[in-house]
Here is the input.
Amino acid sequence: MTKKEKKMSINVIIGAQWGDEGKGKHGDIISEKADYMVRFQGGANAGHTLVIDGEKIIMHLLPVGIMRPSVVNLVGPYVLMDLEVLEEELAIAKKCGAKIILDSSAPVVLPIHKQIDRGREKLAGKSAIGTTQRGIGPTYEDFWSRRFVKLGDLVSKERFSKALLQSGYLQEKTAQVKFLRENPWSHKKLLEWGDKFYDLIKPFLGDTRAIVAKAIAEKKNILFEGAQGVMLDALHGAHPYCTSSFCTLAAVNASFGVYNFDRVIGIAKAYVTRVGAGPFPTKLDNSIGENIRTVGAEFGATTGRPRDCGWLDLVALKYACRMGGVTELQITKLDVMTGLKEIKVCVGYEDVDEYASLTLDVLENAKPVYNVFPVWEDDISKVSEYDKLPPEAKEYLAFLENFLGVRISAVGVGPDRKQILYC
Here is the structure.
């Protein structure tokens, strides 16, 4: 490398559990050195929470890089666009002086998608899988069937109407909504709905794949931001209790044709949470679980639902690191573990091979094997250096790193962007 050549950095942040790991905070911190930040999958069913100087901000679609005016924020072609949410977040971005580019090929979540999502959950009754009812699954279904409305179709009433009517698309969706005992939106009502967004969207449309390719050619620093977590991945999660997109490195490969990365950063809590239905081998249905929920403020950023809490599951985390392509971990909410009566970590499932795919059958029948760790009482939320953590906390982290075979590069000890320790 000559003196004039610039060394670029291409990094990815993904969730290494069942989502809600704290990707927002850590993405915000890492974005300080980014030229571009790129959201690459998911939709408004994900919420990234930031706390900056005591102010709480929740983002669902736009990258958390909007808090830094120097960063160009891209939303890629595999991200589902909820226009009501987008409108709210573009207003926040404007106040921050953020630069935004939205891919014109990104699928649009229509009101009828939310009706289908809601109708399915109602008809399922006790068998409901616990979706956010944001229309994510039905929209991705249309994406994969090659019949959907693109964000670029929302530039005029004529183009939107053509997209709705092409090949009987709206008629088919209407029949589906009626079957699910919902009242379908008419063509006219949908066009009136679209009227609110044409002028809003136009200034932000672009080709994010071309922008990323050019940025790489110019040796810019790029940070890709994922939503949900590997354990909710459409392929590697416990189907059907998963999301509808790929949450791993594969989604970046597929969306942007990028295959070489400097860092793939997996974010994981010092314990585990999940929302909705589905298996949770280390779930704590007791006072310890309730205490973790209360101290950790474990309520969904998107729905407000209380999250189930449990001991850290190293079987699932090791699987997520392997399937997600994780090269390093950052552990969040270590401070929540302070003062617990006991600390356990799942190190195996009885009679399950360590390389097994964690399918629904495996997770539903898993019998966790635990290691017990010493507790610590000292408040660590004001600790500013890793070496100043209590010995018990460092012992806990060292065990995780050795068991997983993945380096822990940072530890969160509170919600603010300043409450992070580098290892």
Remarks:
- The mean pLDDT is 94.
- Residues 83-96 form the longest helix (14 residues).
